[in-house]
From TrEMBL:
Residue ranges crossing the lipid bilayer per the database entry: 7-31, 51-69, 141-159, 171-191, 203-226, 247-267, 287-311
Residues of the EamA domain: 105-183
Highest taxon listed in the record's lineage: Eukaryota
Lineage of producing organism: Eukaryota, Metamonada, Preaxostyla, Oxymonadida, Streblomastigidae
CC per GO annotation: membrane
Pfam families: EamA
Keywords per UniProt: Membrane, Transmembrane, Transmembrane helix
Protein name as catalogued: Solute carrier family 35 member
PANTHER family: PTHR13146
């Protein structure tokens, strides 16, 4: 079951989730559009989706610092509250079918940290796919396509979590399906009608971008359902889940994805190849990229933390219904 939080706390979580989520989408696009001199002395856009993926996991892993300090404080408090020498501590017995047992039984080993490798792997795969798609899609269309996560989360809620949805919820899911189809058509037509051929994105790449986003949402829908299971069916704190997801994602990204994207040979900037040496050279040649990268690092950390608190207090479906609402914030910023 969900760990109920005060209504004011839930509203705060949701507000911060939307604000940091919108900021993260905008900063991600700004990183792609900012140019810098690369390793070969040519000024090119900083189109580095795998770097953004790696930075996200470093940010998530950083929650171990406050979590470690919190645990140290709790342990110190527990030591202070322990009965002093000479005091008699009552023996608490627990009744069982076979008689009475001492309540202080050996603790079972907690394997939660290992189970979190599943959402960590999902997060790495889905984020890389979305970052690669963002190279060829406008941020508004990219964000709206992310609404397809509602479809997959609803299906997984019914078939995996064994929970029923109301008729109005299914109507909402059907509306999302129609909207996604219309968005895909609109993105393709917009690309085909662009007058400036220098900035025109090929229709094929736009379609691939749309497909990548939708597949990524299926993976992320499963990820959030697994997170809900970890948070609701056990006593795992939200910050612990965020930290371990970051750790596993960082390990897989550093030792698998970085070498893989380095050795895959294709046209630079299409999201399929990436040279991390070139990434650091471009970072050092433009301080604006560093500023945007730090902002991205912080915003994705807070987005994931507040998202986990929402899942912990409500459900994965609630979190994923809120996610597409970032579009409203992005539109407001675009208009301003």
């Amino acid at each position: 079951m969900a760990n109920r939080a005060p209504l004011a706390a839930v509203i705060f979580y949701m507000s911060m989730f939307l604000i940091f989520g919108a900021a993260n989408s905008l900063l991600s696009k700004l990183l792609y559009k900012t140019t810098s001199v690369n390793f070969y002395g040519v000024e090119t856009p900083f189109e580095k989706p795998n770097f953004q993926n790696w930075a996200m996991f470093v940010g998530m892993m950083s929650v171990f610092v406050p979590e470690f300090l919190r645990r140290c404080y709790v342990r110190r408090k527990e030591k202070e509250d322990e009965p002093s020498y000479g005091e008699i501590e009552p023996l608490i017995l627990k009744e069982t079918n076979g008689g009475y047992l001492n309540e202080q039984q050996p603790k079972q080993r907690d394997w939660t940290w290992l189970k979190i490798i599943v959402p960590g792997l999902c997060d790495m795969t889905a984020t890389l796919m979305m970052n690669a798609a963002l190279v060829n899609l406008p941020v508004s269309i990219w964000q709206m396509l992310r609404g397809s996560i509602i479809i997959f989360t609803a299906l997984l809620t019914v078939f995996y979590r064994k929970r029923c949805l109301y008729m109005q919820q299914w109507i909402g899911v059907a509306a999302v399906v129609i909207a996604i189809v219309m968005l895909g058509i609109a993105a393709t037509l917009t690309s085909a009608q662009e007058g400036d051929t220098s900035k025109k994105t090929p229709i094929g790449l736009v379609l691939i971008g749309c497909i990548l986003v939708i597949f990524a949402q299926a993976i992320q829908g499963f990820q959030t359902i697994v997170e809900e299971t970890l948070l609701h069916d056990s006593t795992t704190p939200p910050m612990t889940v965020v930290g371990w997801e970051g750790f596993w994602g960082f390990m897989m990204c550093t030792f698998f994805m970085v070498p893989l994207t380095y050795f895959i040979r294709s046209t630079p900037g299409n999201g399929l190849t990436e040279d991390f040496i070139d990434t650091w050279v471009m970072l050092s040649n433009n301080y604006l990229i560093i500023i945007f990268a730090v902002g991205f690092f912080f915003s994705i950390l807070m987005f994931n933390v507040f998202g986990m608190f929402i899942i912990n207090s409500t459900s994965a479906l609630t979190r994923n219904v809120l996610d597409p609402m970032r579009t409203l914030v992005i539109w407001i910023v675009s208009v301003i």
